[in-house]
Amino acid sequence: PGNTANIYSMVKAIDRGMFFLVGENANVKSVVSVRNVAAAVAHLLPRVDPGLHIFNVVDRESYSVRELASLAARLLGKPQPRTLPVPLAKAAAASGDLLSRLSHCDMPLTCARLGALLETTHFSAQKLMDAGFVHPQSTEEAFAEMIAWYRNEPKPASVTAGIKSPQ
Q: What is the Cα–Cα distance from 68 to 58, expressed in whole angstroms?
């Protein structure tokens, strides 16, 4: 909750019916909830000796983009995202780059965004768990919490303009 980066953008696009998987989207992403970050820091601070220690602070399990999108769609009560073939997505991303340069507007699909969607960013939490850390929150619980926040987040006037409440 409160994070408006990549996962938020995906949730918002799925909610609006504007998110597309690209090809198999079997690439794995590691994510972490705020609750797990805070718990990991609290767990490690009194336990590590002075010096340099590197821990990957991520949720216990990592999921493919397809699995994360499916989870978000299910929690939102939305249909599963549709899939675009990779060549079509690459052409659309190149067009997005061109339109961004010409219009100075931020396009929803660019080569950089497509690259981020297709890359694998998987990190193991094994060293953290070997240090005795137990994740207090699952990825699904964190997604449910984030989506509850997203649903209650005040929407900008441009989103709600023209929508009249029944009286």
A: 15
Confidence (pLDDT) at 156: 61
Q: Does the structure show a pLDDT above 50 at 164?
A: no
Q: Which helix (H) or strand (E) holds 139?
A: helix 139-152
Could you tell me how many residues make up the chain? 167
3-state secondary structure of 64: strand
Give the residue ranges of DSSP H helices in 53-125. 65-76, 86-103, 111-118
So what's the pLDDT on residue 160?
45
From its phi and psi, is residue 144 left (phi > 0), alpha (psi between -120 and 50) or beta?
Answer: alpha
Burial of 130 (0-12, 13-18, 19+ CB in 10 A): exposed
Instruction: Show the tokens assigned to 91.
Output: 């052409």
Which tens digit of pLDDT belongs to each residue from 115-131?
Answer: 999 999 999 999 999 99
Q: What is the pLDDT of residues 35-89, one digit of tens each?
A: 999 999 999 999 998 999 999 999 999 999 999 999 999 999 999 999 999 999 9
Contact 57, 125 (CB under 8 A): yes
